[in-house]
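not sure who needs this but someone in the group chat was asking about Ras-related protein Rab-23 from Sinocyclocheilus grahami so here u go. i didnt clean anything up, its just raw.
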Amino acid sequence: MLEEDMEVAIKVVVVGNGAVGKSSMIQRYCKGIFTKDYKKTIGVDFLERQIIVNGEDVRLMLWDTAGQEEFDAITKAYYRGAQACVLVFSTTDRESFEAISSWREKVEMEVGDIPTVLVQNKIDLLDDTVIKNEEAEGLAKRLKLRFYRTSVKEDLNVNEVFKYLADKYLQRLKLQSAEETEVVHTSSNKIGVFNTAPHQTAGDLNSREVINLRPNKQRTKKTKNPFGSCRLL
Ligand SMILES: Nc1nc2c(ncn2[C@@H]2O[C@H](COP(=O)(O)OP(=O)(O)OP(=O)(O)O)[C@@H](O)[C@H]2O)c(=O)[nH]1
């Protein structure tokens, strides 16, 4: 259990070629709607949703980045600080599948290794697929990523994608907390050893053994408003 009355906020970037369904996926997840119209994302957009994962309040901030290369310079800046990533390609767009590795590199260059998931969207159009199942699964294996097939249109597997990422992020956070506790524990043992030197004062010890407690989690105060779970900012 993490601290009470605190909620974990996770910045998630959704990336992939144009028209694969990134905006639609975020809209489906945060607003529960799907539209057939294609409106190219200019730069970056963001929506958020609060969920409970393993008893923890989690606020997912979903950043919708433009898939068109012309916006690359703008979108890259928004990867900074991202804590999880969704890589999306479309069942009916071969190029979007082949571009996945380069999208991953772009994100990794900015934020390193963060919880990431590979998503094949538009599986309602499987009859027109241009990517074999083995190819998609092979890519996921090569990149060591969990793989989901979604249809934003039919609302298939969208919730699962974000739940998995939140869960994975929380696991890392807990592991990190445990490691920090371990560091404090080890240092305090060392202070005990120093105590055997008769002329040392507490001040001396503190100046030698500095214990760094880093608030390394991005958290916000818990919102009590039950209607605040989905907002357009
Ligand atoms: N059949 C089908 N169409 C979908 C699905 N998801 C999205 N679409 C359609 O695909 C088109 C592109 O969707 P967007 O969400 O705008 O794509 P995007 O990836 O955000 O595109 P950019 O903003 O250019 O990066 C729209 O016409 C959507 O209605 C799906 O699961 N199935």
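also Confidence is low (pLDDT under 50) at residues 187-233. if thats useful
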